[in-house]
Please model this.
Amino acid sequence: MPRVLVVDDTASIRFLIRTNLELAGFDVDEAVDGVDCLEILSRTDVMPDAITVDVMMPRMDGVATVAAIRADPRSESIAIIMVSTQGHPAAIQRGMDAGVDAYITKPFDPDFMVNTVSEVIERLKHP
Model:
């Protein structure tokens, strides 16, 4: 079963993403911001297959979080899907430049989000 780490400072968004991924058969963990995400990754023995990450978060924003994940050899190949209210081209480009594999704009269709996570994991497993 694929594992996903959901990183968002808004509990209701974490719940929405978690619920939809779990209904699709994913094993889901949560982090409240970028610092929490990096702490979880540093102490886990089994890396997630994918991470969904918000852009606007306290302590460490999503772009800095993605850069830190990509800079660590243990986590550099994890699929990263940015999920943000910031849908303008410059924001999307910032996410892509940081190293995300996909970008979803809130509000999102839950099926689209689940399919995107699944497709990115598959694409990275079978290039």
Summary: The first strand starts at residue 3 and ends at 7. Residues 110-125 form the longest helix (16 residues). The CA atoms of residues 28 and 35 lie 18 Å apart. The helical segments are 11-23, 34-43, 62-71, 89-98, 110-125.
